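Schema walk-through. Below, the input block comes first and the output block second. Nothing else is stored per chain. Lengths vary across the set, and this one has 373 residues.
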Amino acid sequence: MSRTTVIYCRISRDRVGAGLGVERQEQDCRELAERHGWTVAAVHVDNDLSAYSGRPRPGYERLLTDIGSGRANAVIAWHADRLHRSPVELERFIAVCDPLGVPTHTVRAGELDLSTATGRMHARITGAVARHESEQKGERVRRQKQQSQANGLWLGGRRPFGFAPDGVTLRPTAEQLGAMYRRAHDLYAGDVPQPGELHEEAGRITAEADAIADATRRVLAGDSMRSIFREWNERGLTTSTGAAWTGSKMRQMMLRPRNAGLVGNVERVIGPAQWQPIVDRDSWEALRGLLNDPSRLRNNGGVSRKLVGSFLYLCGVCGETLRSGGHRGGGLGRYTCARMHLTRAAEPVDQIVFGVVEGLLRRENIQLIPTTP
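--- output ---
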C-alpha cells in the first residue's frame, strides 16, 4: 500500500551543534521509506532536545499536527525511543494515530503495531522500559556530578565569564585556546579559530577576569553594581553569551564561588576547586555578606503584582516565592526566584496553572459565581 509518511528525527545532545546525528537518522529513515515505496511529505527534527526532560519539542508537535490533519498517513523514526520516552507522550501518540490507522515504522526496531491491544501493550512496555532507562541514566549523571564537584572539577556547560572554554584556565594564552579548540575538533568536529581570532579571544577572556577582580574591589569600596554593569555595557564587555549585563545577571555572576576558586553555587560552597581564583576567598566572602545584606534588598515599588503568580508561586529549588522579574524582549513578563535560582516566562506558567485550576473546578462541579435559578 502506497502511503505518505512523515519522518521524525531527534538527538538529545548535539555537542557540535551541527546536527550530524539527526542527519544520519534522516538518511536511514529516507532509505526505509524508499524500501516501502512511500512518499516523504515532511521531515521534522528536534536537535539537542531530550524526550525525557519534558521540554516542548516543536518538531514532535508538528508531526502530530501532520497526522491529525491528514497530511500524512504513516510515521517513520530511527527508533521508538526517538519518538517518546514518556508514557504520557506515548498515550497521546496512540490517541492520534490509532483512530486514523496510521502505522509507525522504525529503522532499528521494526514496526510499532498500535492497531491492536497486544501491539499497544508491547509499545507501553517498551515505553516503560525506556522511561526506566532514562531515570537510571539521570541518577547516574547526578551521582557523577556530585562526585565531580567533591573532587573540585568543573561540570561542563557554557563557558563561565572570566574563564577559558574549558571552564578551568584563567587568563589563557592564544596557544592554550588553540589547543582547546583542536581537542574539541578531534572529539566533536567543529571549527578551529584562526591565530588572530585566538589572540583576540584570549585578550577578551583576560579582560573579563580583570573586570571581576576590579568590580569586587569597587563594590567593597562602596561603588554600586549598577554603575559598574552600566560601565561594562558601555565599553562592550558582554556576558559570555554576548548579552548585555543587568543587575540580576551581574549579582549572580559576582556571587559565584568559582570566582574564589571554590565549587558550589550561590547558596552553598562544596569545597576547593581545581582552578585558580580570580579573587581571594576573604574578599569574596566579604562581597557575599555585603550583597546578601537584607538592608540592601530594598523595595522601591519595582516589584509588580500585575502577574497573578507574584508572591504566590514557589521556586522548585529553594521554596522561596517567585516575583515579577521585569520583562523579556517584546515586553513579556517573567517570574524570578528571590534567590536567583530560576527565571521563567510568565505566560506559559500561568496558562498551565489556569488549566489545572479550571480542570479541578470542573471536576468538583464548583461555580465561583452562583447562577440564578
